[in-house]
Design brief:
Number of domains of chain B: 2
Strand order of the largest sheet of chain B: 7-6-8-9-10-13-14
CATH superfamily of the largest domain in chain B: Response regulator
Strand content of chain A: under 5%
Strand order of the largest sheet of chain A: 1-4
Order of helices and strands of chain B: HEHEHEHEEHEHEHEHEHEHHHEEEEEE
Number of helices of chain A: 11
Shape of chain A: globular
Helix content of chain A: over 70%
CATH topology of chain A: ABC transporter involved in vitamin B12 uptake, BtuC
CATH class of the largest domain in chain B: Alpha Beta
CATH class of chain A: Mainly Alpha
Structural class of chain B: alpha/beta
CATH architecture of the largest domain in chain B: 3-Layer(aba) Sandwich
Number of helices of chain B: 12
Strand content of chain B: 15-25%
Oligomer: heterodimer
Largest sheet of chain B: 7 strands, mixed
């Protein structure tokens, strides 16, 4: 039984990263029907900015807690700026053209980001300083790390913040209106371009936060790290019902749990098979995903 | 499984790498009629560091050969090509080298990439000296154009099993690989040797490389409580695995194969890497005859050589010797001369090849991580007993 709970804890830890990144995919899809392939790479860029800040600060005598906060905030802000810049340069001119052009542009942006980081930071692995406590506690044979709790808590707070923002603020209402009908929203006086930009900004904020958290928690970062995680997060978004915010959160956690149970109980070699088999079954039964609605309310 | 997902990306990355190639690796010299030796290694992707260390070894070998007058009066030129550790990119890399007119190739890192490279070189009848690819199949295909300066997985596997059974006196072991050609080969060879040594293999499975979290797999392994956990994949995942194994308070000895032998492992895992034992071909740092090479390498590149730099140095050296003996750059003559080599004085010891092209006396040692440094641990003496390595 302790193995079961251990796997639940691990699945939730892995899943909370997927959820944070899945939100970016789902929000952008909800608003402009674009699968933003570059999103996983924003996660990677966030991790690298956080690494730069932390290693620069390590030379000074800033307390590590403060350094960590600075890394998180600076990485989130810079990545958000990057996210908006990408939207402005690469996607905005194509908003009215065919879906395919913008989709291929997204692939191009993804490669540009990966290779940009490759040129600046090199192809190897960069390692975050070992800041987090290895301390933890054990309940009935289940090993729980203090840092693990912190990471999960932080990601749940960020997701809660996003949910409140989208559902209980004026701008959030505008976002949801856009998701339903762009032209009608424009007629109602909503500044469509700005709201789209805001969507990219929010997605980038969360991705960067996940990137820094991944770096701090797992210590190893690499220019390619956004690919595998992006793929799984995208799967999470589809599983939850792409375009749906609670769906992305639930989808991410579910993928994390499936991965953990797959590796823990069946065979680590077949983890991906297990995850994607569940995805296929869910989509066969409910093509819009777990939380997805066919038409009206998307976000 | 892995390669199908990565193929498209790796292809595009390789393309970009070609564009940016000049930034990553400039060819050594550009003499008019230099003898070109191709070096296919990963220069992009996760294992690019290892590839660059190998390329550096090739460059130092070329420098030394050219400084002492080249081969029969001709200089040699190193032509690097990025194979991204990917089978399809590797075919293109080998083809590109052939198109550029290399007379021989020396290099390779991932066995999964070296295999298609070897086939491509075989078709063009170009000799290929491997420095790091240890999968047995490479020399089992009956090709005459291949030799290697490193041992094979079916030699390392039994060595590792011998160590686990007779030095660590383990009763149970878990073997984890990552489904790549190299890692699976080493895992399979180790598992079969463990069984004949009387060690019970309680877990034998693969993980997906590139993930950040392997705790579910480790939780499963922890439940089986093995005395030894042997990971036969690459260093980046090994760093993550050993760190997470410590977080789960796993008690068994954590071990890695020769591809985990890289400083990134220690940087990733920090103090959690302490106590990890690695089976490997001796590092240049631990070979008495290679101290000059280590100093020269550090002076030129600002860091210690990688685990295969010295094997690549010898691979280029052997190839140069073969061309010298052949007194020709014709493929058939070089290949014939290569198989004649019986006791070339390499930095890694006497080098000779058997009929398949395998090195006749490959050496292995175990090293251990102590205070976040690799130090020699134990090796087999002539009588087959485990003794402290120097």
């Amino acid at each position: 039984m302790s193995t079961f709970f251990q796997l639940v804890i691990e699945g939730l830890t892995i899943g909370s990263f997927y959820s944070l990144v899945a939100l970016g995919y789902t929000m952008v899809y909800g608003i402009i029907r674009l699968i933003n392939f570059a999103h996983g790479d924003l996660f990677m860029v966030g991790a690298f900015i956080g690494w730069t800040v932390l290693t620069t600060l390590a030379a000074t005598h800033v307390p590590w807690g403060l350094g960590l906060l600075a890394a998180l905030v600076i990485a989130m802000l810079l990545t958000a700026v990057l996210g908006v810049a990408i939207e402005k340069v690469a996607y905005e001119p194509l908003l009215r053209s065919s879906r395919l052009s913008i989709l291929i542009t997204a692939l191009g942006v993804s490669l540009a980001l990966e290779n940009g980081v490759l040129l600046i930071y090199g192809p190897g692995f960069n390692t975050y300083p070992h800041l987090l406590t290895q301390a933890g506690f054990s309940i009935g044979g289940v090993e729980i790390n203090d840092a693990q709790i912190g990471m999960m808590l932080l990601s749940f707070l960020l997701m809660l913040g996003l949910y409140i923002f989208v559902h209980h603020t004026f701008v959030g209402t505008a976002m949801r209106a856009l998701a339903v009908d762009q032209d009608a929203a424009r007629l109602m006086g909503i500044d469509v371009e700005n709201v789209i930009r805001l969507t990219f900004l929010l997605g980038a904020l969360l991705a960067a936060a996940a990137g820094v958290m991944e770096g701090v928690y797992y210590t190893q970062i690499n220019f390619f790290m956004g690919f595998l995680l992006g793929l799984r997060a995208f799967t999470a978004a589809v599983l939850g019902g792409i375009g749906n915010i609670p769906g992305a959160m639930a989808g991410g956690l579910l993928i994390g749990l499936l991965e953990a149970f797959g590796a823990g109980y069946i065979s680590s070699r077949w983890t991906d098979v297990f995850v994607f088999a569940v995805l296929i079954i869910v989509l066969a039964v409910k093509p819009t995903g777990l939380f997805g609605e066919r038409v009206v309310e998307r976000m | 499984m892995r390669h199908s997902r990565f193929t498209i990306r790796a292809g595009i990355i390789a393309l970009t790498a070609l564009l940016f190639g000049p930034f990553m690796a400039a060819p050594g010299s550009a003499a008019g009629d230099a003898i070109k030796i191709g070096v296919p290694v990963p220069l992009s992707g996760s294992y690019a560091n290892a590839g660059i260390d190998i390329l550096n070894g090739a460059k130092l070998a070329a420098e030394r050969i050219n400084a002492s007058g080249g081969i029969n009066g001709q200089k040699i030129e190193i032509v690097p090509e990025d194979d991204a550790c990917d089978a399809q990119t590797a075919v293109q890399a080998a083809q590109k080298l052939i198109d550029e007119g290399v007379v021989a190739a020396a290099g390779g890192y991932c066995s999964s990439a070296s295999l298609p490279e070897l086939t491509t070189f075989h078709r063009a009848n170009i000799p290929f000296a491997l420095d790091a690819s240890t999968n047995p199949q490479l020399t089992e295909m009956g090709y005459d154009n291949v030799v290697r300066t490193i041992g094979r997985d079916d030699e390392q596997g039994p060595f590792a099993a011998n160590f686990i059974a007779n030095a660590l006196h383990a009763k149970t072991a878990a073997v984890i690989h990552d489904n790549t050609t190299y890692a699976k080969g080493l895992a399979d060879n180790t598992v079969s040797a463990l069984k004949t040594s009387g060690v019970r293999v309680v877990y034998d499975n693969a993980v997906t490389p590139g993930q950040a979290d392997y705790t579910p797999t480790l939780t499963r392994v922890a439940g089986l409580n093995p005395d030894v956990i042997y990971y036969t994949g690459y260093f980046s995942e090994a760093g993550v695995l050993v760190k997470e194994a410590r977080q789960l308070h796993m008690k068994g000895t954590f071990m890695g194969g020769d591809a985990t032998n890289d400083p990134t492992l220690i940087k990733t895992a920090g103090s959690a890497a302490n106590g990890m034992i690695i089976t490997t071909s001796p590092l240049a740092q631990f070979i008495s005859g290679a101290h000059g090479f280590v100093q020269q390498y550090e002076k030129a590149y600002g860091h210690a050589p990688g685990p295969y730099s010295v094997y690549e140095y010898d691979a280029v050296g052997v190839m140069a010797q073969a061309i010298r003996n052949a007194k020709s750059t014709k493929s058939d003559k070089i290949i014939a001369a290569l198989h004649q080599i019986k006791n070339y004085h390499g930095l890694t010891g006497e080098i000779g090849f058997n009929a398949k092209g395998d090195r006749t006396k490959p050496a292995y040692i175990t090293i251990i991580v102590k205070n976040e440094q690799f130090v020699p641990y134990q090796q087999l003496n002539a009588a087959g007993k485990w003794v402290v390595a120097k």
